[in-house]
Structures are given as C-alpha cells and as structure tokens.
Amino acid sequence: MGVLVSAATLAWTAEPAHAQPATVRLVPDLSPAVPLGAPINDQKIEVHALLEQFESRSTGSSNNFRYEGLAWAGTDYDKLFLKFEGTRRSNGRFGDGLNEILYARAISTYFDVQTGVRVDLDNGRTRTWYALGVQGLAVQFFNVEATAYVSDSGHFAAKFNVSYDLPITNRLFLQPQAELNVYSKADAGRGVGSGFGELDTGLRLRYEITRKFAPYIGVSYQKAFGQTANFARQEGGPVNDLRFNFGTRLWF
C-alpha cells in the first residue's frame, strides 16, 4: 500500500528539535444562545397623542375652524383609542362633532381592528353609534381607515379615510387626504341624507420645525351629495366649499 506524505508533513519533520508547536486552547462558550438578539418588550405601555388638523379654513369672507386628532395608550398589540373631530363654522354653529372611544387589537404588522362607541356631539341631534373597523398602513404606506357604524336608532353608516405623507425634503411634507361618509337613512336632525353624505378632501404642505411641531398651509374642498346637499341649502350652508387652510400639526 502506498503512503502519501504531504509537503507540510515533511516541513514539520524537518524542524529543529527545540521548536515547540503552537499551543491552541479551546474555551467552551458558556454564554446562553441568543440567535435572534435580546427579546423585545412588546408589553410596555406607551402613550401618544396627535393633533392632525388644527386649522383655519378661509374663503376670504368667512372662516371656519377645524380640528381633528387622536390619542392612544397601550402596548404593541392592544391599545385604547380616543378620536375626535369637529368644525366651528363662521355662523357660530358647531358641526361634525364626532368623538370615539375604541379598543384596538393588532391583526398584522401594519393593521389593527378597532371596536367601540362613537358619539356625535355638536349643535345637531346627539347620536350614539357602535363602531367596528380597521386602520393601518396599506401598500406604499398609505394611511387608511374604514369603519362601519350602527346607531341607537337603527341607522347604518360608514366612514372611509385615506392620506399619504409625501416627503419633499427631510422637513417638508406634502399630504393629500380624503374622507367620505355614507349613510343608510336620512337623518334631518343630523343634516344628512341617505347614500353618499359628504366628501372632505385636502392638500397640505407642512414644514416640520421639529417632529412634534409642524405649521402648514393648504387647500380643502368639501362637497355634499343628494339629500345631504338639500339639508345644507335649507340651513344656508355651502354644497361645494373650497377654502384655503393654515394651521399646525402637533404630536406628543
């Protein structure tokens, strides 16, 4: 049987007798294995508030004041939301006073399912609704919200909201936004008709002095449809309303 002797073996045997081979120490790794890194504390309770719209809407001859925001407290999976919005019109009347308390549960990385109670509080008739909907980030990071409602008087309604933050620079953002309300029955006390009710759209350019303080300018357009438009005319309100906006976006 032949014997193969490598060059490395010959070189080692040719070393002088006083040469010592290198010492290699194998130290066992006694640290615990953490292949995915340290665990994330997803049960920590956080608190957040955002005033998305805090603005004056002007036509030059009349001015409305509009606010819309939310606050929540909870963990990555479970949150309690408070949502609010309303408009003080130039005639002194307060409308669109929508207030919600919702429990939200994460159903995916980007979406929550929400359920709770909505109460309409303004100069119109007070209504209480049960709410069920979803909210989150859709494809291309559009902020989307879709909620269905059942009122204490047996009426049904739905609200759809979509917006997108388009970065122009690190501090300058352009935000298109649209909201549509739909109702199953006419409600003269609330000034809404059956079918499509109101469309509220806007385009806002904001400058983030800090992430928490961002003044903006923009335009908004509101349109009432069908019976809702008839109710608006009876009260002397506009059916197609284009206004210039200036306001501040705040979060805490």
Care to describe what's here?
6% of the residues lie in helices and 55% in strands. The chain is mainly beta. The chain has one domain: Porin (Beta Barrel), CATH 2.40.160.40. The chain is globular. 19% of the residues are buried. The model is unreliable at 1-34 (pLDDT under 50).
Q: How many domains?
A: 1
Main sheet: strands, sense, barrel: 12 strands, antiparallel, barrel
Helical content (DSSP H or I, runs of 4+): under 10%
Query: CATH fold name, please?
Result: Porin
Low-confidence stretches: 1-34
Supply the helix-strand structural class.
mainly beta
* CATH superfamily (homologous) name: monomeric porin ompg
What fraction of the residues are assigned to beta strands by DSSP? over 45%
This entry's quaternary arrangement is: single chain
- What is the typical, i.e. mean, pLDDT? 86
Strand order of the largest sheet: 1-2-3-4-5-6-7-8-10-11-12-13
